[in-house]
Amino acid sequence: MNTFFDSSAFAKRYVEETGSDEVEKICIKSDLIALSSICFPDIISALNRRLRENNIVKSDYL
């Protein structure tokens, strides 16, 4: 199965929130995971925001 994720869905692999378990299950089943080139800066931006807001700890960010 080939799967395409947008950044908000794929970020759930790295931040535990509603839907994270489902995203992980889909990733495990997928033969190919495709992401938009804008996905990476979007996820980094979201993680930076969560770090600034103290929603994640620095060790999880790194």
Q: Tell me the β content.
A: 5-15%
Q: Would you list the SSEs in sequence order as H and E?
A: EHHEHH
**Widest sheet: strand ordering:** 1-2
Overall geometric form:
globular
Give the mean pLDDT.
92
User: What is the end-to-end distance?
Assistant: 30 Å
CA-based gyration radius: 12 Å
Which spans have pLDDT < 50 for at least 5 consecutive residues?
Answer: none
Question: Biggest sheet: strands, sense, closure?
Answer: 2 strands, parallel
Number of domains: 1
Number of strands: 2
Judged by helices, strands and strand pairing, the structural class is alpha+beta
Account of the protein in words:
This protein is an alpha+beta fold. It has one domain (2-60). Helix content is 52%, strand content 13%. It is built from four helices and two strands; from the N terminus they run βααβαα. The termini are far apart. The model has no long low-confidence stretch (mean pLDDT 92).
Describe what is shown at a glance.
With 62 residues, the chain is of the alpha+beta class. The chain is 52% helix and 13% strand. A two-stranded parallel ribbon has the order 1-2.
Write a concise keyword list for the protein shown above.
single chain; 62 residues; 4 helices; alpha+beta; globular
What's the SSE blueprint?
Elements lengths: L1 E4 L1 H4 L9 H10 L2 E4 L3 H14 L5 H4 L1
Parallel strand pairs: 1-2
